[in-house]
């Protein structure tokens, strides 16, 4: 299996590039039901993370993810900073002192990250949030690994579930965050947090499949 520290570095580097490329899309989605700053805020945080990555080369994934999480906490405004910051810190705690990327520690890290998001955001499925992406993706990951699929195949299933979860937020009425103030007017809009969450799941898989250079 790949070294977990190398994977964490490549994941964060690629995520920064993806959010930069889709910043306007995330902001446009947030303009419809939020404060129109999700793309800007998330990019600011990931740019700060990217600036710290060269100094983290050779470190374990736990250290890298915890550093990223604390950086997001301190640089990203709104709710996404604390939520994603908590997710990365919780995942980093699972990866501490685990040099290799394995199916079991990926599942455990994902479980810890989702638990952290739900505890901090007090959110459940069906409330038009990033939970509506991460939870079904984790279900798919667990089911695929239980069926004997390798990690890459299980992650493909997780990406498909994440995309379905993202699209499922469109007809939902938001009951959490800034979007909840709109009530029924939030129906018909894709949640920006769910969109960035899907992006993260997709990047997790793409980096896993891409050879290290």
User: Helix tally?
Assistant: 9
How many independent structural domains? 1
The topology string of helices and strands comes to: HHHHHHHHH
Average of pLDDT: 93
Q: What level of helicity do the residues show?
A: 55-70%
Largest sheet data: none
Structure class = mainly alpha
Q: Pick out the low-confidence regions.
A: none
Number of strands: 0
Instruction: Give the CA-CA distance, first to last residue.
Output: 16 Å
CATH homologous superfamily designation: DhaL domain
Shape summary: globular
Q: Supply Rg.
A: 16 Å
Any idea what the CATH architecture is?
Answer: Alpha Horseshoe
Instruction: Assign the CATH class.
Output: Mainly Alpha
If you consult CATH, what is the topology? Serine Threonine Protein Phosphatase 5, Tetratricopeptide repeat
Q: Which percent band covers the strand fraction?
A: under 5%
Describe the model:
This protein starts with a helix and ends with a helix. The longest helix is centred in the middle third of the chain and has 19 residues, at 103-121. The chain has 9 helices and no strands. The protein has a single domain (4-209), classed as Serine Threonine Protein Phosphatase 5, Tetratricopeptide repeat (Alpha Horseshoe), CATH 1.25.40. Helix 1 (4-21) runs parallel beside helix 4, helix 3 packs across helix 4 and helix 5 runs antiparallel to helix 6. With 213 residues, the protein is mostly helical. 69% of the residues lie in helices and 0% in strands.
